[in-house]
From TrEMBL, chains A, C:
Residues that span the membrane, as ranges: none
UniProt-listed PANTHER family: KETOACID-COENZYME A TRANSFERASE, SUCCINYL-COA:3-KETOACID COENZYME A TRANSFERASE SUBUNIT B-RELATED
InterPro entries: CoA_trans_fam_I, NagB/RpiA_transferase-like
Molecular function terms, GO-annotated: transferase activity
Keywords: Transferase
Protein name: Succinyl-CoA--3-ketoacid-CoA transferase
Signal sequence extent: none
From TrEMBL, chains B, D:
Name this protein carries in UniProt: 3-oxoacid CoA-transferase subunit A
A matching Pfam family: CoA_trans
Keyword annotations: Transferase
Record bears the keyword Glycoprotein: no
Protein's UniProt keywords contain Kinase: no
Length: 209, 244, 209, 244
């Protein structure tokens, strides 16, 4: 049985190391704030300058001035700090972010990924992804293994315009956890009941078991 | 300092005189800091051929608050410079998109950190700088790069603006600003980048000296016009519901 | 009778316009904070990020955390704000300072000046002068017309290494107030009892009366 | 955040492990923000071949407080990078000067705003930028310039540091810092520029959460070690008299 999205979040968060500063992209990656990190001390950074934010606010306790980069009304545990957009991206570009977890359209075995421009689109959806992808110490991707029509999003090389080249360290999908090695996706973990053959069938790039 | 108040009486007065062809920075990231009332006044004011700088042109969500997309629909915009110029999901369409696709408005799509740094550079008298963001992507095609200490960087230019429209929490009559929580976002750097800084203020304007100098986020010498936001329904005060 | 230093400060401050942001260099220029500006609203900016500071603190009322760029214990009138060094020089480089008043070793008719390096010195005394000189809307100099041994500090071209080229708008000395025009020092005002011939005798550049 | 305290018990513990050859940023402009106690500890710690970054090497005034000049006298410094590397009056001699004249220590003399911006650039992941300061002067001789929009600018490189030694007013256990008045000066940008940020704190260290997030000047994720300054005579607390 493939992983549910919360299971993907939980599994990917196990890759985080104690003390990491973590930035979460819009969509699926935001599920990671719900994961119990146990003994690990994790600090969440949002592009809009909210450093050390906590879980989403309970209903009725939202602060209209306090959203994360995904527009969620979050909370501020003790030790949080606010900076402006320039200082927030200063932290990003200067390599202070240990990992960014991003959603994506495509991930490639050559460690590229593409998450800002769909085919035929004029304009783009860049947000902070290019800065994060170029500068975070680790880039983790979280996505569905295939499109709705069954086309693989796991490719040897991206077909869409890339967000950054050669920067991806981990990819998690509902089928497994992968490390792109340049030539292949190396399987680090597999969802229960999923086989390597299932993964190979769903992947348009070499898979290294 | 503070001998003369910077407070004006209305949003319309606050945006008076903004010229056709101006480059205007719009504060805000999602709801916090977005200058909805000043943007509404600019829709009434009618300045044309504007270059609009902001994080996004405005999303596909409803109900809509005044945003760059509405200025586009109102025929006031020549170009936008944003980090989002399309909808994240192919199934969504931004109000801005059809105008862009028909070529009625131009767009420059910029990584968010580069956008922030270009504004900050303009406000810091730095005409150009190098950044790693965007290297190796379509955005870098045909552009100048430089290898520094073995890494490739893209040359980016400052983005000076004529006007900034901002929303903050507190201000004093000298123009010193305080933003609350995530409302700060682009506010301080857009103020730095702009010649005319106009701010809608949530709390009643304080007398000069009421804000501790250590707690000022944007110094008053950067700010020209302040307007206090009256209670709804005379002004726009978005609620949680509109922003979920 | 040549002007006293407080008289030089008072005369130079008459050149300020209402609403100006003013930066004062170390030494003589600091006398300007004692000048009564009358109806003019003047805001003092210091390189160390103190914006809108007021007169020197009365004895016993000094704040050990609050100095201007000349190490003087100053005061903070209502409306003052503090920024860090990067933001302070951002204001300078982006042209927000209407005038900087600097002390100098030499002023030149070609609008250069030299205030950071004496003859034979290894090292220099730059401080914020090069940023201010390059970027303030107006550069005013305040200095003695001659050295102690009688050599003119008012030259056609600087003999010392320059601080900035072609940026000086006004020079005040104990003898008069001058505008360097490129070819000459144009006399804008003269201290009481001083003649144009006195000025010519003390100046190693053409003087335009 | 804040599960583990960043507080250490002594100045000596705070500077432990600083390696020979490190580039060290020293906060402070005149008295406010100068890390006298950490500098004193570094004199005891003895790291050699240091590159010392600060506004000045230390003036000719007495009584002296620990400064870069004392580290030079102690044989610990290879190079200084400062905006003041000589005494303003030819009649004064900096303690640093004879070492510099004899070639025992190197120096880079940098305009103060360029120094600030090079530190800020290092902390912002910007490897190089252009500035108008210094154009046409001896400092620009043989260096790369570029004309942008008709004006000439000098290329300047980021100045990353291994360690920052700072003094602030308040801090919480998560490392969030607040500076008081003119104490802020180089503090926030040196924290941005440095890998190991060590701070002497005037007030007792506060529990995490005691500082409002809107009033933090330097976020705790930039800070590694905090030490509370004990009362005199166990620590250096300069008085007004010493700084006139």
């Amino acid at each position: 049985m493939p992983w549910s999205r919360p299971q993907m979040a939980e599994r990917l968060a196990r890759e985080f190391q104690d003390g990491w500063i973590v930035n979460l992209g819009v969509g699926m990656p935001t599920l990671i704030t719900d994961v119990d990190m146990g003994e690990k001390e994790i600090t969440f950074h949002a592009e809009n300058g909210v450093i050390g934010f906590g879980p989403v606010a309970a209903e009725g306790h939202e602060d209209i001035h306090l959203v994360d980069a995904s527009r969620r009304f979050v909370t501020l545990p003790p030790g949080a700090a606010i900076v402006d957009h320039a200082d927030s991206f200063a932290l990003i570009r200067s390599g202070r972010i240990d990992v960014t977890v991003l959603g994506t359209y495509e991930a490639a075995a050559n460690r590229d990924f593409a998450n800002w421009k769909v085919k035929g689109a004029k304009g783009g959806v860049i947000g902070g992804a290019m800065d994060l992808a170029a500068c975070a110490k680790n880039v983790f991707l979280m996505m569905e293994h295939r499109t709705r029509d069954g086309t693989s999003r796991m490719l040897a090389e991206c077909s869409l315009p890339v967000t950054a080249r050669g920067r991806v360290n981990r990819v998690i999908t509902e089928l497994g956890l992968f490390e792109p090695t340049g030539a292949a996706f190396k399987v680090l973990d597999v969802a229960p009941g999923v086989t390597i053959d299932d993964i190979r069938a769903a992947t348009a790039a070499p898979v290294e078991a | 300092m503070g001998k003369r108040s910077k407070v004006v009486a209305s949003f319309d007065e606050a945006v008076a005189g903004i010229a056709d062809g101006s480059t205007i920075a719009f504060g805000g990231f999602a709801l916090p800091g977005s200058p909805f009332n000043l943007t509404a006044a600019l829709l009434r004011q009618g300045a044309k051929r504007l270059v609009c700088v902001g994080n996004t042109t405005g999303g596909p969500r409803k109900p809509r608050n005044p945003d760059i997309g509405m200025l586009v629909e109102n025929g006031q915009v020549a170009k936008v410079i944003c980090s989002f110029t399309a909808a994240p999901r192919a199934s969504d369409v931004l109000p801005f998109t059809p105008y862009y696709e028909r070529g009625e408005v131009d767009a420059e799509t910029v990584p968010q950190g580069t956008l922030a740094e270009r504004l900050r550079a303009a406000g810091a008298g730095v005409p150009a700088f190098y950044t790693p963001a965007g290297v190796g992507t379509q955005l870098a095609e045909g552009r100048e790069t430089r290898v520094i200490n073995g890494r490739e960087y893209l040359l980016e230019y400052a983005l000076p603006c004529d006007v900034a429209l901002l929303r903050c929490y507190q201000a004093d009559e000298a123009g010193n600003l305080r933003f609350r929580r995530a409302q700060r976002n682009f506010g301080p750097i857009m103020a730095m980048a702009s010649k005319l800084v106009i701010v809608e203020v949530e709390e009643p304007i304080l007398p000069a000296g009421a804000i501790d100098p250590d707690e000022v986020h944007t110094p008053g010498i950067l700010v020209q016009r302040l307007v206090h936001i009256p209670p709804a329904p005379d002004a726009i005060w978005p609620t949680l519901k509109e922003t979920r």
